[in-house]
Amino acid sequence: MDGNVVDNTQPTDSTGKQTSTSDDVSANTTDKCARLAPQANRLKIFNKVVEKSLQRLIVDASFHRFAQSFHPFYKENPEKTKQIHQQFIASLQKHIQDDINKVVEECELQCKLEELDRLCDLAKENTEDAWRPSGVPEQDISSFLMPYYKKQELIMKRELEKMRRENAELAKKVQDGRGAIASMEQRIAAAVDEWKAPLEDLRACISAICPEEPFDEF
Prior knowledge:
Layout: H1 23-36, H2 42-60, H3 63-69, H4 71-76, H5 78-106, H6 109-125, H7 137-209
């Protein structure tokens, strides 16, 4: 076996199938994806980009480079080196794909890309001309801020009216409470007055029966 390593193998995926290493095919596929991008779903585009990037990574981790890095071992056992490289590529693909799937899941990328698609579709349906600066900064700022200020003014008026209604309701409740307290005080005073006459009669009766004992001690 000579010292030059010949790479007769193609990169394989986790299923053991060979993948293409042609840069022309990759470029054509990328151009095709770019042309289809306006119509395609962004998540599908993302998956294709990830797949193409993974393929390029596998191409860079070719058996030729792997054998050069472990050239003494390759010279002693080329078949074993080839098997190790295939296992390495399969494991590399699996772990990278798992990490990507985890990032997509944790960041909720699918929902965000679908929302972006929805916003783009809504923007296409909007036939109004987009805002453009007039060239006069004062007018541009005024045209931008005035609707905002008017909206805030309307919100403040609504809040003020709400607070006024709440204050009126609270004032009514306070007035009703004061009226209830005054009415209760009147009832208490009337009850006390009603008890005064019988109490005076009882005191006079006790004084007549027991004149020697002061009523206060009783």
